[in-house]
Amino acid sequence: MSDSYTRATFDEVMVPNYNPSEILPERGEGSRVWDQNGNEYVDFAGGIAVSILGHNHPGMVKALKDQADKIWHLSNVFTNKPALELADKLTEATFADKVFFANSGGEANEAAFKLARRYAHDNFGPEKSEILSFSKSFHGRTLFTVCVGGQPKYTEGFEPLPGGILHTEYNNIEAFKELISDKTCAVVMEPIQGEGGIIPADPEFVKQVRELCDKHNALLVFDEVQTGFGRTGDLYAYMGMGVTPDILTTAKSMGGGFPIGAMLTTTKIAASLVPGTHGSTYGGNPLGCAVSLAVLDAINTPEMMTAVKEKSAKIQSGLEAIGEKYGVFSGVRGKGMLLGAVLSDEWKGKARKFLEAGWANGVMCLVAGADVVRFAPAATITEADIEEGLARFDKAISELVS
């Protein structure tokens, strides 16, 4: 073995399901990251909408170190104080009465979909089992969640697939009306489609979906894995939409970089998950919950939510100016610290090139499909880092179009 690892080492020892950059980040501070060669980057990517408080946040570091000196793991044979405190604060802050902890967004969604079917079975019978989702959606990488997601490229080659899952067009209420029925046990939607291209739900569409769910006794499940924990300028996006789900899933920013996820729901619905029906060995572990508590305390303040909205407006206007200057974007959409720059017709299908140009000029961003460049910076990003990141991105685009 060598003491020096490079991108080539990945090809030697890792399963090839990822295609990572040549960059090997070694440390971070706030919204800046340094790689193995000492190169510095402004982080507009946030670990794919995870690092809501940036890197090396002192509150998170302290919470982890303090808990590490106490107890790390217990399993679900026992409960623990950090888990109870986090669940208590989440239920106090949201519509929910009950919480189930997991390790990721995919696990949280798996729990939500199982609960929806179990609840329908208990209350209406086995024939009420259909799950209705939307094209371009993304809900995880387990076989069940990837099938609920509306992107066939993620299910190819994994057949036979779980059945009883239907898809319709996002933001198209007439198409939705044609599919929902008394056989529908749950409707699953993202308030803003993330992997599908940073596509916000139309408020009137969401309102009518809620009404039709009630009419057909179907549960409304909001996947807030990417939009939750303050990323949109509300603790959860549903709070700014005037619609309340029956089940909500959360992860990513919830741990600020530490793996944790959760499913939130009401007492009535939660009653269907009796002992033995579902579980997670690591879900609700003291380390993860202690870190998430620190994130929640830092993010869930009026001042922080106002800052998210103000900084979002600055980033969005900066991206719009770049798009107009170089003719590369047809628009910028999204909310809070989850924005997507939609490529103009000339540049469609080339989002990866923008990613690579950013890396070469010291700024990290993301893609959301082949036609959208995604930005998911920390809520704590400074004005100086916003300006520097936009300047570096501007330089990257100037080189790309030349």
From TrEMBL:
Pathway: Amino-acid biosynthesis; L-arginine biosynthesis; N(2)-acetyl-L-ornithine from L-glutamate: step 4/4. Keywords: Amino-acid biosynthesis, Aminotransferase, Arginine biosynthesis, Cytoplasm, Pyridoxal phosphate, Transferase. Its main location: cytoplasm. It holds the Pfam family Aminotran_3. The keyword Metal-binding does not apply. Pyridoxal 5'-phosphate binds at residues 138, 223-226, 281. One of its GO terms (molecular function) is N2-acetyl-L-ornithine:2-oxoglutarate 5-aminotransferase activity. The modification N6-(pyridoxal phosphate)lysine is found at residue 252. Its cofactor is pyridoxal 5'-phosphate. Homodimer. This is Acetylornithine aminotransferase. It comes from Kangiella geojedonensis. The lineage of its organism: Bacteria, Pseudomonadati, Pseudomonadota, Gammaproteobacteria, Kangiellales. The gene is argD.
